[in-house]
Amino acid sequence: MKSKKASGFTLVEVLIVVVIMAVLAATIIPQFSDSANDAKEGTSEFNLHTIRSQIELYKSQHDGLVPSDLSKLTEVTDEDGTVGAGADFKYGPYIRELPVNSFTNLNTVTTITNSPAQAGDVTGASGWLYNATTGTVFIDHADHFEK
């Protein structure tokens, strides 16, 4: 009589493979979560730079005045910053719409009085923090408001 040897993996072999996969997962998964955070940070900083550069353009066309609120960047204005239409309203719009803060997924604005923004100004309930006196804008996020 010929004996048949059972084919397949032993329990030890299967456990070794599972342990190897767990070690690989433990080293790879944190890298993916860091890249998502890095992407949010990069996008928010790019949007912040865009808003800041458009505020500077607004200032140069309005004799150094800053917009009273960031929604003015999406409007057509005259040289005094009054929103309207017609031949006298030749400045803007500077941006089509206010960009979204990637951390909060909001494009709303909270007006602050500090410049630079302070930790107490950060609510996380809006996209941006804006000081209408100085024309400075910041990211409304606890870890990134100082940028």
Automatic annotation (TrEMBL):
<dbReference type="InterPro" id="IPR000983">
    <property type="entry name" value="Bac_GSPG_pilin"/>
</dbReference>
<dbReference type="GO" id="GO:0015627">
    <property type="term" value="C:type II protein secretion system complex"/>
</dbReference>
<protein>
    <submittedName>
        <fullName>Type II secretion system protein G</fullName>
    </submittedName>
</protein>
<keyword id="KW-0472">Membrane</keyword>
<keyword id="KW-0488">Methylation</keyword>
<dbReference type="Pfam" id="PF07963">
    <property type="entry name" value="N_methyl"/>
</dbReference>
<dbReference type="GO" id="GO:0015628">
    <property type="term" value="P:protein secretion by the type II secretion system"/>
</dbReference>
<dbReference type="GO" id="GO:0016020">
    <property type="term" value="C:membrane"/>
</dbReference>
<keyword id="KW-1133">Transmembrane helix</keyword>
<dbReference type="InterPro" id="IPR012902">
    <property type="entry name" value="N_methyl_site"/>
</dbReference>
<keyword id="KW-0812">Transmembrane</keyword>
<dbReference type="InterPro" id="IPR045584">
    <property type="entry name" value="Pilin-like"/>
</dbReference>
